[in-house]
Amino acid sequence: MSDTLAAGHRATTCPRCGGPFACGVGADRATPCFCVAYKLGAERLAELRATWSDCLCAGCLAALADHPETPA
């Protein structure tokens, strides 16, 4: 991961896979977080929020979006 983070992003670790990534949940609209690109649906989002206490990396979100039958 780069040492320089975009404004509003934070360095963190994915609670699902343990990989490092830059979370942009606090970023402004000019530099939104990558997670807004994933279409997960309300039920899946509720499941993820109930399972994980923090944001997931792009790889995990992509896997869960591509395979909705995969357990969180």
Automatic annotation (TrEMBL):
Question: What name has this protein been given in UniProt?
Answer: Cysteine-rich CWC family protein
- Species of origin reads Scleromatobacter humisilvae
What Pfam families is this protein classified in? Cys_rich_CWC
